[in-house]
Amino acid sequence: MLVQVDELNIFVATGGKIFDPDLPTILFLHGSGGDHRTWAMQTRWFAYNGFSVLAPDLPGHSLSDGNAFSTIEESGIWLAKFLNTLGVDKVHLVGHSQGFLTALAFAEHHNDLVRSITAIGTAAEIPVNEHLIKTAETSRDKAAEMMCNWGFGPNAHQGISSVPGMQPIGISRAIMKNNPLEVDLRACAEFKRGSEISKNLTMHKHCILASHDKMTPMKAGLLLAKNMSVNPQIIQNSGHMLPIESPKKTLLALRKFIETIAS
Fold it and tell me: How far is CA 180 from CA 66, 134, 175, in A?
């Protein structure tokens, strides 16, 4: 569906169901250079099992108008407008990589609106290699190639896919090379308040990490989990692109957490 926020058309995937704000709502936030397709399996399951789901292409990405946010703080402010437009007064936040930083920026000022927050393949702060940012500024194709080489675990590089007939590396590369990867990466690199915010979260919290994550290494993910006072769930043999690389395992980890809260 399309939603107007600040007079811009924003595309939002709803898992194949009409969005109903009266149902428990889960908001899925994609990472750098990504879009709603990151969450194809997860959104569909929740939409058909008693939840409303929102997986927006953030401004400037794929099917949404506008420009990408130059700072994480800006994306958190925008998120409040987005949810208000849709009449959502309580939300489960799920963020992958940069998407979790946006969730943090939102949760800091809207604690009363957040039922739970889930970090997937991320850290409290995400330092980004300057060479990768410079490459993205001159060639998104090359930067997307680098991101996919680093971002996927060994199974994906061997051609193993959780979804028969689909190759997650190829899908991710095609998405990233057409999105403002350089702006996203710079915003991640400059966000320095994640540790402080993550230590002060008071809602239900969860952290799902990947054993072979080279982009937000395990050490950084474990520190985030410590800041959040949670025991992280670690998915083996997967890399940074957890939602699209290991969609079934990611869904199962997320289901268990959110269904426990709902019950």
Answer: 11, 13, 10
Residue ranges per structural domain of the chain: 2-262
Distance CA 225, CA 1 (A): 34
Burial class (CB in 10 A: 0-12, 13-18, 19+), 80: middle
Q: Is the pTM of this model over 0.90?
A: yes
SS3 state of residue 249: helix
- Answer for the pair 57, 75: CB distance below 8 angstroms, yes or no: no
Burial class (CB in 10 A: 0-12, 13-18, 19+), 258: buried
CA 19 from chain centre, in angstroms, equals 20
Find out if CATH 3.40.50.1820 is the number for domain 2-262.
yes
Can you tell me the distance from the alpha carbon of 168 to that of 127, in angstroms, rounded to the nearest whole number?
24
**Token pair for residue 216?**
């937000």
Helix, strand or coil for residue 78?
A: helix
pLDDT digits 0-9 by tens, 74-114: 999 999 999 999 999 999 999 999 999 999 999 999 999 99
Alpha helices in the chain (DSSP H): 40-47, 72-85, 98-109, 130-138, 140-151, 154-157, 168-176, 181-190, 194-199, 218-228, 242-245, 247-262
Q: 145: helix, coil or strand?
A: helix
Could you tell me how far CA 66 lies from the centroid of its own chain?
A: 19
Residues 6+ apart with CB under 8 A from 166: none
Measured between alpha carbons, how far is 215 from 241 in angstroms, rounded to an integer?
9
Inter-residue contact 31 to 97 (CB < 8 Å): yes
CB atoms closer than 10 angstroms to residue 54: 26
